[in-house]
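FIELD: query
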Amino acid sequence: MDEQRLLTGPAKLLDHGGNLTQAGWAPYPVLDCNLEDCHFYRLTAFQKMRIKIWDYYAVTTADHFFSFTISNIGYLGMIFAYVIDFKTGEYQEQTVSTPFASGVSLPRRSTEGKTVYEKGNLHMVFEALPGKRTVSVRWPGFAGSELNAEFSLEQPKEHESMTIVIPIRGKRFYYNHKLNCLPATGWIDYEGKHFELTPVTALGNLDWGRGVWEYASHWVWASASGFLADKRRIGLNLGYGFGDTSAASENCIILDGKVHKLGKMAFTFDPNDYKKPWTMVSPDNRLELTFTPFFERVAKTNAVVLKSEVHQMFGRYNGWGITDSGEKIEIRDLIGWAEEHYAKW
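FIELD: result
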């Protein structure tokens, strides 16, 4: 496997000059996200406009995918949710935008604090607590109906994650904490239907991102949280597309809360037809997957300074992976997603 440098801490993400103190990955967050020390523009008043921060929670069941996001991209807050019914193909998504992220609050650390958007009757709150994370949503009028949720995601102290720091040209960077396979307990009400979430049927994930990106950006991200035939929890996090990943990639297998780190991955897909099968293969023969899409989510934004297009494919992963101990894991019909995203933001 190519070198995968470990982050060490506790330490600060940035020094006083706005330079990254280190790059690499870790199975737990070890760096303080001191974004107040960013220094990439001479006119410091513009720096906050270029910092992008978000918390993206999702829950995967055998039949549905539920996603909730609160974000602040500097000059705009974006709050959105979407629901996909895997059996029927029904899909609903709604976004609320708020100038200069009015009403949005995101915490400094991924390990504690509240993420909040509340305006009128719309309420979305995420909280990181010892041993768990909670999601609370009240969204009247969502897609002409309503979307309400109250659930927790179990996160024992020993549950590992993909935490990575990626340098981007010109004092830019991405600090990311991704969690997979968190057992869910609670409920979601959607379009008059009540969905009970239990740890043996529903798994959650978190994409916690903080960074300063180039205006024109591109990335590919693949992820999954599910169960093996023997009921062990299996997760995937794979990706590429931006910054300098020579210190570490974000590629890994997550098995029962343990990260098995991978190096480089070779992705093959057709950008002219995302519905065709994708392949993900590691050159060191640790992972070989075929991803067969069954649903395409397309989200496009075309505003004055903000342009975005994402093709998020949901499908089934089949193949195998090899753990750090040499165990070969057979992956069969694991539901997850793979996406390509272009952004000018």
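FIELD: remark
The chain has one helix and 25 strands.
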